[in-house]
Specification:
The protein is an alpha/beta fold. 35% of the residues lie in helices and 16% in strands. It is found in: Cytoplasm.
């Protein structure tokens, strides 16, 4: 296992290599706070925590930075008024609780920010708003205008209209997409745990990971999918996904506890810093496809198709498909796999799973002649594809192999 605390350490065990100037100097910051940080152990909304958070964000605003808050907590805030002892399992009751709770949550924030002379503005978004060009632009324009007029945008997922298929299910990834949308300088994820640990933080001996520079730094790290208290939804998995999305889009990300918010924003070496990776800025759609979707099935490609899709960024045609797995419908996200099982890309498929066996291995011309022009369409169009490996030869072998 890698050294959990990287860089030279002070006597206190802090990481002095992390100056965190990217945080201290950030002009535009997205801060996400999770349900677990906003609720008391008894399940009520923690007004003190909301007040403290508003103090910290207002300070940063007063210092000239633009701040967008992404806040969970609507479902949690709706439980007590609805007489529910715990987070309900079914989607409709969760959505009902969210509609009750969101208003209460915003009322608390409105009062807390008003003490600093700031106007809170509720912004409810769905994944559609992030990936469809018109909605994307609208969301971007509204958020920018809110920042221009000095308001404090408070974003949450639009829980009442989001469905299982399209909902993020967590605000961690939404926050990363918002950071990308706004070209933020930094993303801060606040939870009830002060950092990413190399295993369950409740376990004695678990070690804080101070810095993550690439995926290899997470090898061997046990990233749990459920929080301790059952109010949060994604556990560490979605936070690490969020950090991956943001850093790929060039946005450095700090993960720490809400209690550390002030220190994190000041650039102190608290929590876990995920450093930004300076690469070509991906589209929001690509980020969403790669990180925020769950594949509904897989399509297995022959080596020639792997080379075409990965090497030439071509659309996937029926001729290159050898197998189909899972029960997906047209429009669903699917994994494209090489024959050795490696996932080489993810894309939105144009056919139902049941249709593919009759098409695979056939040329587009044959399909159009035998089945009609509707069957000329690709299995996955290149615009609906995101590549997950770069070197086709690693998985497909050199050209010449069938
Ligand atoms: N490797 C890990 N390091 C830190 N925390 C972890 C890890 N694996 C699982 N967790 C859990 O993830 C929880 C945070 O996730 P969650 O409850 O969804 O938070 P939030 O409501 O802030 O989104 C922590 O309370 C912790 O118990
Ligand atoms: N939109 C939901 C968010 C659920 C969610 O992502 O929760 P969390 O894991 O606490 O960030 C709510 O407000 O309850």
């Amino acid at each position: 296992m890698r050294e959990a605390l990287s860089g030279p350490q002070t006597e206190e065990g802090e990481d002095t290599a992390d100056r965190r100037t990217e945080l201290a100097g950030a002009r535009r910051i997205v801060v996400k706070v999770g349900s677990s940080s906003l609720t008391t152990p008894g399940g009520d909304i923690d007004r003190d925590r909301i007040g403290e958070l508003a103090d910290v964000l207002a300070e940063r605003r007063a210092a000239g930075a633009e701040v967008v808050l992404v806040s969970s907590g609507a479902v949690a805030a709706g439980l007590a008024p609805m007489g529910l002892p715990a987070r309900p399992r079914d989607l409709a009751t969760q959505q009902a609780a969210a509609s009750v709770g969101q208003g209460l949550l915003i009322a608390h924030y409105t009062a807390a920010f008003a003490r600093h002379g700031l106007t809170a503005a509720q912004v409810l978004l769905t994944v559609e708003d992030m990936i469809r060009r018109v909605q994307h632009r609208n969301a971007q324009r509204t958020l920018r205008r809110l920042l221009d007029i000095g308001a404090m945008p408070i974003v949450n997922e639009n829980d009442t209209v989001a469905t299982h298929e399209i909902r993020f299910g967590d605000n961690d990834r939404l926050a990363a997409l918002v950071a990308h949308l706004l070209r933020a300088d930094a993303l801060v994820l606040l939870s009830d745990v002060d950092a990413l640990y190399d295993g369950n933080p409740a376990r004695p001996g678990a070690r804080r990971i101070a810095r993550v520079e690439d995926a290899a730094d997470l090898d061997g790290v046990d990233i749990g999918s459920a929080g301790r208290r059952g109010v949060g939804t994604g556990g560490m998995v979605t936070k690490v996904d969020s950090a991956r999305i943001a850093t790929e889009a060039g946005v450095p990300t700090v993960l720490t506890s809400a209690a550390n918010a002030r220190a994190a924003l000041a650039g102190a070496p608290v929590g876990t810093l995920f450093t930004a990776r300076a690469r070509r800025r991906p589209s929001t759609r690509q980020l969403w496809l790669a990180h925020a979707t769950t594949a509904r099935g897989s399509i297995v490609l022959d080596p020639g198709a792997v080379r075409a899709v990965v090497g030439s960024h071509a659309s996937l045609l029926p001729a290159g498909v050898v197998k189909v797995e899972g029960d997906f419908s047209a429009g669903d996200p699917v994994d494209l796999r090489a024959e050795d099982g490696t996932v080489v890309a993810r894309g939105l498929v144009n056919y139902d799973a049941a249709e593919v066996p009759d098409l695979m291995g056939r040329s587009t011309r044959w399909l159009a002649r035998e089945l009609g022009p509707d069957y000329e369409r690709e299995i996955v169009h290149r615009d609906d594809l995101v590549l997950l490996v770069r070197d086709p030869e690693r998985v497909a072998g050199p050209p010449g192999r069938p």
